[in-house]
Write a structure and sequence with these properties.
Number of helices: 8
Strand order of the largest sheet: 1-2
Radius of gyration: 19 Å
Strand content: under 5%
Shape: globular
Distance between the termini: 44 Å
Oligomer: single chain
Largest sheet: 2 strands, antiparallel
Number of strands: 2
């Protein structure tokens, strides 16, 4: 049961981050230079691999209870941030995330930027692509490492994240357009619920608590978090001015 939730959470969270990274790379490639943009992507992947290689073994040395307490607290911070924005978007209090709009904004910025070249590369396209993939990928790496280490199965979390990266990349470069039709806000809502659930579960276990039924408590926590967040959406919609 936990393994399925682990893979699903890593997949969904990674898919959301990779959709955003893909939008940036597509904007740089179509407006500036594909070679420079893809070189930036490659450099970001190498940097991310170095981060994972450095942190992965270190996490295995931390006692599991201490690790789950720290990981649970961090996941709660991330999860509640994602869930807060998803609730506000669902209630109509802040605009929905629009990949098509972001794509056009990135393209406009790329078209205005100076054409400086270094080492045969368009430096603007390289830098923006590197930064976009590295920052979004860093969140993916954090999720994979924390989920995997807390559950004792980094390869399982990595498999979920890897599947999302391959799928988003393949679809994105096949259509050569931002994945605006992907229900990204719904995905972010689901990820917020799942991160909050795992954060609550692991933080309590790390602090010495024992959930009734063990891992079987996870679906119950997910339902409770979702129902509470849905009630907040309804309440905020009613309280919002017309």
């Amino acid at each position: 049961m936990t393994g399925a939730f682990l893979v699903a959470s890593a997949f969904l969270a990674s898919a959301v981050e990779m959709v955003e990274a893909l939008t940036i790379v597509l904007a740089m490639g179509t407006t500036r230079d594909w070679r420079s943009a893809l070189t930036g992507v490659g450099a970001a992947i190498v940097a991310l691999a170095a981060v994972v290689a450095a942190l992965g073994p270190a996490l295995t040395l931390v006692p599991i209870d201490d690790l789950r307490l720290v990981v649970g607290a961090l996941l709660l911070v991330f999860g509640l941030q994602w869930l807060r924005k998803a609730i506000l978007r669902s209630a109509g209090l802040i605009p929905l995330h629009d990949e098509a709009e972001i794509f056009e904004r990135e393209r406009a910025g790329a078209a205005r930027a100076a054409g400086e070249r270094r080492a045969g590369l368009d430096w603007f396209a390289f830098t923006v692509s590197f930064k976009g993939v590295f920052l979004e990928g860093l969140e993916v790496a954090f999720i994979v490492l924390t989920f995997g280490a807390a559950q004792g199965s980094i390869p399982l979390a990595a498999a979920g994240a890897g599947a999302a990266v391959v799928l988003v990349t393949a679809v994105g470069f096949a259509v050569r357009a931002p994945l605006a039709r992907v229900p990204e806000n719904t995905l972010k809502y689901a990820v917020g619920v799942m991160l909050t659930t795992f954060g609550t579960f692991w933080a309590a276990e790390g602090a010495g608590a024992h959930w009734p039924g063990g891992d079987a408590a996870l679906p119950v926590i997910i339902v409770c978090v979702f129902l509470f967040s849905a009630a907040l959406v309804v309440g905020l919609r009613r309280a919002a001015p017309a």
